């Protein structure tokens, strides 16, 4: 995940400035402009055909065009103040071609016949120039022509249509509840995304999609001026592929968790959570510093997602395995020989991972990916064994598979699409087990809630994760809060030490808006689901220091 | 996008301000060309060019601020964007932290623009890559790399009479070279304002040598070791100190520069007395902009002097509240060193580890600036003044503040690029005792 974006929008750890930067090529606009569709599907199809015809006439053997409108809204506050209200729009067209067996890409913010022709010509010129360096021509896996189709995130309430005043009132109310409970500082943000994407290719697909994402978040900071200590408690919300209905905080979506905490499933109560956060931040300062050593870990889904993301999501990306990301994010320990052996024991037998681009409410859910492939789900790890990777049209033939997995994505019309992580989720256990029952079987352990610090090597062997809340487990019972906790492990050893997974009643999604990959770096939104999971004998270090 | 001359920029900005009806108005104008080429498995994978221009108008009525931007510069569009910012300002809630725009300032001339960098052609880019790939291929190794260059200008003007203008250019290059069997990996990175200084062949040769020499690495026990950090390795740790110099956070008690009892560590000796870190926009080896985005002059500032925290950075609001000079945060920094080369540092080491690169740096505890991450792309064991053998990568948990208390020796500073932030810095190779490695990694 990209560190700077994470700090800026998610972690809010440092707390001071939370002004989101205007995304590149975006312009601040008024809400009326956001709610205006500006161009209908007929116009988009006409413009797309100009790109496709121009590309073919210049010798392209394949072309696709994406007319994209990317809308964001940020409302940021701190304590009693509104810091910023920002609506942004980015509108343009990206054209990708294969000429001389080589990819070329061109983009323009002039969504006119002339602008589209120019972008296409530029894509062709780049493809031809780079074909000198090409070793093998690009080979695309077959993909059906879908004709004219559309897909929309099944939202109940469009967040952009909810008044700014309602959002400001909600955030300021959450802030004031945290301050009443003694918080030193609160930063909060409402972040909405709408991607209006039109895709067409020379194979006859014309795909219109309307994608929504919502992310309420805060950081409550408690400072003990006397001892000089401070702790941040982040929100227990998840970024979701839903509309503003996520903020409804329905009673049936609240979960009473171990240690007296409240967790959330399909909707979120930000005011209640902020109140809890202030109380817990106080306890975090007063908590006992952890004794380093081996512990059984009980990891809650709002924590698990990031461990899954880094240790399972990334190493199963085929382009990393092949070396395309070697200079930046790195390669992968899950080399092709391990997959070919059909017996590489990635994890214990209870471990099953599914990659998915369709799960309702997830950040990865779309109808079709950014190269026009209909989305689906597929197994990555079955009964602990590596069975597949994540791959797109120009690489899936390496796996001797006939169709793309449908996980191609670009963050904007101005960036070229490439393989990006699907939702990768740990399947719940098949026997009935609640988190309380799981904890009752642990003699010496730690129950960890919500993601914190994270770091993993470039082949995804060695990782270290922190968290937000740490509860000591002694003889099957929660025995108070701990601090200064981080766990270190080797990916394969870690997943082989996974001994139990709670059942589907405890299965929840969490994720990130801003997973970074590629050069220049692009962001991708992705969710990861799991139920509470137990790992035996994991190495825990103490991170307390004095300066 | 053509780069506007100072006079052209001034004329355009004056025109925009002439449309303003707000209490105060400020206009920021910028344009740039950004190009890149990427390669992997000894072949080009993608390349692209993005041109952008933007004009942002900030209008204020009292403490109510509205911002609007546009990328078309005809008269009608310019007037429209001014009106739009004024409408947004009228609708905005009052911002109690709004500070009236700055009046006229004096700026030194920036030395950040080199015409040769602005004139790089697609053919040159391809040639830079070809030279790199050829070096790797010749040694039966596999290169993956990225070259990006940009050139542009920025200017601002406001209704209080402030005017600032500057041009800049930069090229960053990085390459990872792996042995065909995947057992060795080396890295090199270069950053310059002036592309004529870039030698991708020489940089790739260094990466290839590291890659070949790092194969067949042995595992040694994690623990506390004397380390020699190449500048590319220490850059990603040191920049975290510089990112954390904000006075408001320190005053609010939520920074490593806050201390028990409610005070900050400003003026306190926190590191070895050989540690001197400053920023200087006019440094010939590392020129940066002479003004910040809100129009404040960027001047030479000492941040850490003889190990003492000498200055903190301030927003204009917080400086006004505290009654101090509003010093903006730095765009880059220089850490002073000595005259020793990396080889000299190795020669004087009885037992230690050479770290050529650190990777995936994340905060573990903001209270102590404890960071974690891993060594990558060439880590070597040193004994009796010589590199003995390559070693497997380590995870570390270390605070740069603690690390700079454990300085053994500093070498001659050189310009490097942070792989985390893409920023360029001047940093010496350094020898540090008791650097904390906490576990082994099998990653190559």
TrEMBL record, chain A:
Residues 63-127 form the Metalloprotease TldD/E N-terminal domain. Residues 292-540 form the Metalloprotease TldD/E C-terminal domain. Transmembrane segments: none annotated. Residues 160-246 form the Metalloprotease TldD/E central domain. InterPro entries: Metalloprtase-TldD/E_C, Metalloprtase-TldD/E_cen_dom, Metalloprtase-TldD/E_N, Peptidase_U62_metallo, TldD/PmbA_N, TldD/PmbA_sf. It comes from the Bacteria. Keywords: Hydrolase, Metalloprotease, Protease. Belongs to the peptidase U62 family. This is TldD/PmbA family protein. The lineage of its organism: Bacteria, Pseudomonadati, Bacteroidota, Cytophagia, Cytophagales.
Automatic annotation (TrEMBL), chain B:
It comes from Chryseosolibacter indicus. This is TldD/PmbA family protein. Belongs to the peptidase U62 family. Residues 222-438 form the Metalloprotease TldD/E C-terminal domain. Pfam families: PmbA_TldD_1st (PF01523), PmbA_TldD_2nd (PF19290), PmbA_TldD_3rd (PF19289). Residues 122-202 form the Metalloprotease TldD/E central domain. SUPFAM superfamilies: Putative modulator of DNA gyrase, PmbA/TldD. PANTHER family: CONSERVED PROTEIN, TLDD PROTEIN. Residues 25-89 form the Metalloprotease TldD/E N-terminal domain. It comes from the Bacteria.
């Amino acid at each position: 995940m990209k560190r700077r974006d994470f700090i800026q929008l998610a972690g809010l750890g440092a707390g001071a400035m939370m002004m989101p930067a205007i995304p590149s090529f975006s312009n601040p606009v008024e809400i009326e402009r956001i709610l205006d569709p500006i161009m209908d599907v007929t116009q988009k199809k006409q413009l797309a055909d100009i790109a496709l015809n121009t590309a073919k006439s210049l010798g392209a053997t394949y072309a696709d065009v994406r007319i994209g409108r990317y809308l964001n809204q940020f409302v940021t506050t701190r304590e009693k103040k509104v810091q910023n209200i920002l609506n942004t729009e980015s509108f343009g067209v990206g054209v990708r071609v294969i000429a001389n067996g080589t990819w070329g890409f061109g983009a323009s913010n002039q969504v006119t016949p002339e602008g589209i022709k120019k972008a296409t010509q530029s894509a062709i010129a780049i493809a031809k120039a780079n074909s000198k360096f090409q070793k093998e021509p690009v080979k695309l896996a077959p993909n059906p022509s879908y004709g004219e189709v559309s897909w929309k995130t099944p939202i109940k309430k469009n967040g952009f249509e909810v008044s700014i005043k309602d959002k400001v009132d909600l955030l300021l109310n959450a802030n004031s509840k945290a301050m009443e409970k003694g918080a030193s500082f609160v930063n909060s943000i409402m972040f909405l995304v709408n991607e209006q994407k039109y895709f067409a290719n020379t194979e006859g697909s014309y795909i219109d999609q309307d994608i929504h994402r919502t992310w309420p978040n805060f950081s409550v900071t408690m400072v003990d001026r006397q001892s000089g200590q401070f702790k941040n408690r982040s929100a227990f919300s998840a970024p979701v592929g839903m509309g503003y209905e996520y903020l409804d905080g329905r009673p049936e979506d609240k979960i009473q968790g171990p240690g007296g905490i409240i967790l959330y499933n399909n909707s979120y109560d930000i005011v209640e959570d902020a109140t809890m956060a202030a109380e817990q931040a106080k306890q975090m300062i007063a908590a006992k510093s952890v004794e380093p050593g081996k512990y059984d870990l009980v990891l809650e889904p709002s924590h698990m997602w990031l461990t899954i993301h880094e240790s399972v999501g990334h190493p199963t990306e085929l382009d990393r395995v092949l070396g395309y990301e070697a200079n930046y994010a790195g390669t992968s320990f899950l080399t092709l020989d391990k997959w070919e052996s059909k017996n590489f024991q990635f994890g214990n037998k209870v471990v099953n991972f599914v990659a998915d681009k369709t799960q309702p409410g997830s950040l990865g859910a779309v109808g079709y990916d950014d190269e026009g492939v209909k989305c689906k789900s597929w197994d990555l790890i079955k009964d602990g064994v590596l069975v597949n990777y994540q791959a797109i049209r120009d690489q899936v033939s390496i796996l001797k598979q006939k169709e793309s997995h449908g996980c191609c994505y670009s963050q904007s019309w101005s960036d070229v699409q490439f393989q990006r992580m699907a939702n990768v989720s740990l399947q719940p256990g098949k026997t009935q087990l609640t988190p309380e029952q799981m904890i009752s079987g642990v003699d010496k352990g730690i129950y960890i809630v919500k993601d914190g610090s994270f770091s993993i090597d470039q082949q995804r062997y060695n990782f270290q994760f922190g968290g937000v809340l740490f509860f000591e487990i002694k003889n099957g019972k929660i025995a108070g809060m701990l601090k200064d906790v981080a766990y270190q492990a080797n990916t394969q050893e870690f997943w082989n030490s996974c001994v139990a997974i709670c059942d589907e009643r405890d299965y929840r999604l969490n994720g990130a808006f801003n997973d970074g990959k590629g050069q220049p770096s692009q962001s991708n939104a992705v969710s990861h689901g799991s139920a509470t999971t137990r790992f035996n004998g994991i190495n825990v270090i103490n991170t307390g220091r004095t300066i | 996008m053509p780069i506007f001359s100072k006079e052209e920029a001034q004329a355009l900005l004056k025109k925009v301000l002439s449309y303003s009806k707000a209490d105060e108005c400020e206009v920021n104008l910028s344009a740039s060309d950004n190009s890149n080429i990427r390669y992997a498995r000894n072949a080009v994978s993608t390349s692209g060019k993005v041109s952008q221009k933007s004009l942002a108008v900030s209008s204020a009525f009292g403490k109510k601020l509205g911002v609007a931007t546009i990328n078309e510069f005809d008269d009608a569009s310019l007037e429209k964007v001014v009106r739009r910012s004024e409408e947004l300002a009228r609708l905005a809630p009052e911002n109690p932290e709004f500070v009236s725009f700055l009046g006229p300032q004096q700026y030194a001339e920036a030395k950040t623009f080199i015409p040769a960098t602005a004139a790089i052609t697609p053919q040159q880019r391809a040639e830079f890559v070809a030279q790199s790939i050829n070096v790797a291929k010749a040694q039966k190794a596999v290169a993956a790399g990225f070259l990006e260059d940009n050139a542009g200008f920025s200017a601002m003007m406001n209704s209080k009479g402030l005017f600032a203008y500057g041009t800049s250019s930069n090229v960053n290059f990085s390459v990872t070279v792996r042995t065909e069997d995947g057992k060795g990996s080396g890295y090199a990175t270069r950053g310059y304002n002036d592309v004529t200084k870039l030698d991708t062949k020489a940089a790739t040769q260094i990466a290839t040598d590291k890659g070949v020499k790092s194969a067949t690495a042995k595992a040694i026990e994690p623990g506390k070791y004397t380390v020699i950090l190449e500048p590319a390795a220490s850059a990603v740790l040191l920049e975290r100190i510089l990112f954390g110099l904000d006075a408001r956070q320190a005053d609010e008690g939520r920074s490593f520069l806050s201390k028990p009892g409610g005070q900050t560590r400003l003026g306190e000796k926190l590191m070895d007395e050989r540690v001197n870190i400053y920023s200087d926009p006019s440094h010939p080896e590392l020129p940066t902009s002479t003004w910040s985005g809100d129009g404040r002059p960027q001047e030479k500032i000492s941040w850490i002097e003889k190990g003492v925290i000498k200055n903190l950075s301030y927003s204009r609001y917080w400086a006004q509240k505290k009654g101090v000079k509003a010093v903006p945060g730095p765009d880059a920094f220089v850490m002073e060193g000595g005259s020793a080369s990396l080889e000299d540092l190795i020669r004087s080491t009885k037992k230690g580890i050479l770290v050529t690169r650190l990777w995936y740096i994340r905060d573990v505890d903001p209270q102590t600036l404890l960071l974690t991450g891993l060594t990558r792309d060439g880590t070597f064991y040193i004994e009796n003044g010589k590199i003995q053998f390559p070693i497997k990568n380590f995870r570390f948990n270390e605070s740069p503040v603690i690390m700079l208390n454990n300085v053994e020796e500093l070498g001659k500073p050189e310009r490097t690029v942070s792989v985390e932030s893409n920023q360029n810095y001047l940093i010496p190779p350094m020898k540090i005792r008791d650097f904390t490695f906490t576990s082994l990694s099998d990653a190559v």
